[in-house]
């Protein structure tokens, strides 16, 4: 067996392990052997990989397998890109993830056709005959809703076998371009093991243009890179984005534009009204490549014949806007040209140099503010902390996998003998492994942002990193207390996952989990003792009982508050979270006793309050919530209330007093009357748009 074959078989074992873990997360250990659940878990794991590679964006895993009319229709997931009028449907060929066999072209074709039938059914209104409040209903209703604007359908076939051919003949659909992309185990292995956050794209410029692309070679003393200058036509940019989409964009650029929108209105207006001046107005494109094939004419002038691994590091909105201008707005691009700088980066420097090029190329826009790579100082520091901080008892530690596959690499490196392998597994059990996506879910849920978590793994991660940058800056590094609180929040999140498995919700399980965690954090207003959870490496019986009691109520409220709207989309809205905050649930007495034990008591107001005797559970919640607000916000509310007259004079006075308390570190703890009035001030500000946004508080 060759070295490459060894690596492939090792990768398959790792993939099986991931799928087993995901199965347990989804439905518990009892049903892990079920092929149907393993197919869902396999799809979910592969979707995570494809999202990180930029192959798909914010896909929803959703199993639909029915007969529509006389024909079979099946998908395992879906995604909508409204800006580009594109729908992605994911369909899985799953045989149990045993020894990989061959997947025939016929099987691939049948799978693709079944997926296309799902879309046909959706645009013809299939959802009207379905039971509402299910994920399959949401999918079919959403596909129907966007279908009038859809011009392109991309079918992604995932197979747990090897497809030597790997292509599917074009599928003819009226008024719709259909493309099929096959991901078998070999392709997954190559992309997932490459060490870079994308699958290298090969672009034959000579074939696309009819001749190589003329360029200037900008020589450099550095042995790390060489740069080339060229002018790209608008039609070439359109065709490249049409064929490859966001896969052309470097990780940071791709992540930022997925969160903020790819199309720039100013660029769009220039393309529509002054296409001939586009090159003069536009800053152009900067890109990197792994390989550049050059040719020279008789006069020694250089041209680029082909590019491999092209990644746009600056100008993502330019290429996306050019594509939309032609595809959606029918703009003639014959007069549109864009200057481009293409930097050839040596393979050994790709992982470190390309993110730096992206950051420095974007110094004048917000892409520079966030680094979404595994090499961000925050993730490096979290990994260091996970390697040095042991759980209480010094028997085990948590393992932070800042890049996919690091756990298996460490296990292989340390487990050179059976005894060493047992030692590694005992000290670093697989169930104590977590990654970037998990971290973002844990912390955004605990920070009361369940609507953000509901956007999907990648978008939630991007939002988390952007918020981290706004609050702390790029060079901030977390300390041990931050790490312990992170693990404690993760323990709470995982307990809610376990409770969700018990209830076996038919849909919206992930939404119910994040909303339950967020509601706990919100209602207890920072009073949950995360240190206690860290020390116990578990939640208390009282806390677990509260979560168990609340979770079905949270689930029901998410569904009922949608009021006939698409529940999946509703859960992504801030309004959904605002509605859940008013849910009529109370903190059980047993948990309230735990929360009260560590809470600071008022040192202003009535004497009975200072001993705690005169405080109700609601009073304690109000005081804790008031003390969560930053001094800058209380000061802002004081000024806002006076300026707009939305607050009475005595209310602005209370806000000013609390700003003073907060600025002094809450040495003075507000009385229950002050807290009651402060909650009313916050309610008024919420209703009238008077609250600060998080970036304004910093």
From TrEMBL:
Annotated ranges, domain Abortive infection phage resistance protein N-terminal: 42-190
Pfam families found in the cross-reference section: AIPR, AIPR_N
Highest taxon, organism lineage: Bacteria
Ranges of residues in domain Abortive phage infection protein C-terminal: 249-561
Protein's UniProt name: AIPR protein
Organism: uncultured Gemmatimonadota bacterium
């Amino acid at each position: 067996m060759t070295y490459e074959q060894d690596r492939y078989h090792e990768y398959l074992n790792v993939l099986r392990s991931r799928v087993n873990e995901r199965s347990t997360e989804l439905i518990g250990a009892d049903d892990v052997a079920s092929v149907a659940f393993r197919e869902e878990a396999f799809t979910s794991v592969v979707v995570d990989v494809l999202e990180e590679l930029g192959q798909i964006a914010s896909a929803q895993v959703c199993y639909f397998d029915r007969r529509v009319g006389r024909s079979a229709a099946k998908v395992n997931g879906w995604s909508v890109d409204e800006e580009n009028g594109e729908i992605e449907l994911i369909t899985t060929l799953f045989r149990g993830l045993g020894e990989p066999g061959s997947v025939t072209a016929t099987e691939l074709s049948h799978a693709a056709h079944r997926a296309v039938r799902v879309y046909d059914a959706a645009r013809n209104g299939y959802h009207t005959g379905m039971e509402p409040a299910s994920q399959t209903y949401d999918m079919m209703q959403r596909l129907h809703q966007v279908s009038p604007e859809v011009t392109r359908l991309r079918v992604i076939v995932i197979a747990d076998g090897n497809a030597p051919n790997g292509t599917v003949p074009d599928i003819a659909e009226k008024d719709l371009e259909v493309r099929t992309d096959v991901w078998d185990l070999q392709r997954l292995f190559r992309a997932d093991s490459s060490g870079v956050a994308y699958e290298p794209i090969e672009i034959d410029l000579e074939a696309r243009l009819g001749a190589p692309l003329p360029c200037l070679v900008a020589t450099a003393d550095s042995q790390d890179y060489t740069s080339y200058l060229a002018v790209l036509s608008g039609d070439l940019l359109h065709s490249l984005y049409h064929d490859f989409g966001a896969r052309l964009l470097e990780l940071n650029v791709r992540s930022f534009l997925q969160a903020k929108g790819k199309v720039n209105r100013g660029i769009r207006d220039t393309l529509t009204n002054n296409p001939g001046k586009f090159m003069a107005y536009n800053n152009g494109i900067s890109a990197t490549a792994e390989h550049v094939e050059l040719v020279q004419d008789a006069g020694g002038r250089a041209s680029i014949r082909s590019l491999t691994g092209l990644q746009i590091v600056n100008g993502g909105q330019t290429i996306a806007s050019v594509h939309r201008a032609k595809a959606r707005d029918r703009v003639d691009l014959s007069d549109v040209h864009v200057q481009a700088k293409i930097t050839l980066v040596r393979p050994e420097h790709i992982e470190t140099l390309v993110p730096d090029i992206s950051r420095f190329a974007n110094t004048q826009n917000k892409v520079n503010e966030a680094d979404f790579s595994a090499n961000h100082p925050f993730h490096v520091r979290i990994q260091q902390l996970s390697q040095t901080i042991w759980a209480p008892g010094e028997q085990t530690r948590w393992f932070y996998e800042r890049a996919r596959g690091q756990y298996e690499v460490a296990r292989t490196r340390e487990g050179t003998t059976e005894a060493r392998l047992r030692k590694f597994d005992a000290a670093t059990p697989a169930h104590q492994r977590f990654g970037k996506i998990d971290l973002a879910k844990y912390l955004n849920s605990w920070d009361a942002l369940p609507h953000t978590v509901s956007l999907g793994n990648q978008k939630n991660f991007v939002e988390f990193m952007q918020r981290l940058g706004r609050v702390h800056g790029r060079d901030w590094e977390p300390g041990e207390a931050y790490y312990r609180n992170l693990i404690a929040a993760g323990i709470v999140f995982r307990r809610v996952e376990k409770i969700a498995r018990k209830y076996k919700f038919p849909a919206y399980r992930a939404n119910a989990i994040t909303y339950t965690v967020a509601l706990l954090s919100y209602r207890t207003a920072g009073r949950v003792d995360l240190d206690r959870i860290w020390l116990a490496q578990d939640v208390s019986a009282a806390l677990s009982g509260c979560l168990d009691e609340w979770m079905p109520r949270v689930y029901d409220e998410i569904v009922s508050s949608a009021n006939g709207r698409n529940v999946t989309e509703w859960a992504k809205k801030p309004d959904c979270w605002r509605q859940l905050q008013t849910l009529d649930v109370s903190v059980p007495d047993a948990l309230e006793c735990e929360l009260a034990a560590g809470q600071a008591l008022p040192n202003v107001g009535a004497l009975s309050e200072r001993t705690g005797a005169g405080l109700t559970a609601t009073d304690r919640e109000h005081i804790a919530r008031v003390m969560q607000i930053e001094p800058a916000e209380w000061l802002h509310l004081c000024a806002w209330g006076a300026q707009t007259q939305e607050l009475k004079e005595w209310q602005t006075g209370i806000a000013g007093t609390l700003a003073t308390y907060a600025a002094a570190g809450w040495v003075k703890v507000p009385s229950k009357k002050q807290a009651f009035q402060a909650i009313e001030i916050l309610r008024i500000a919420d209703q009238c748009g008077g609250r600060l946004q998080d970036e304004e508080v910093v």
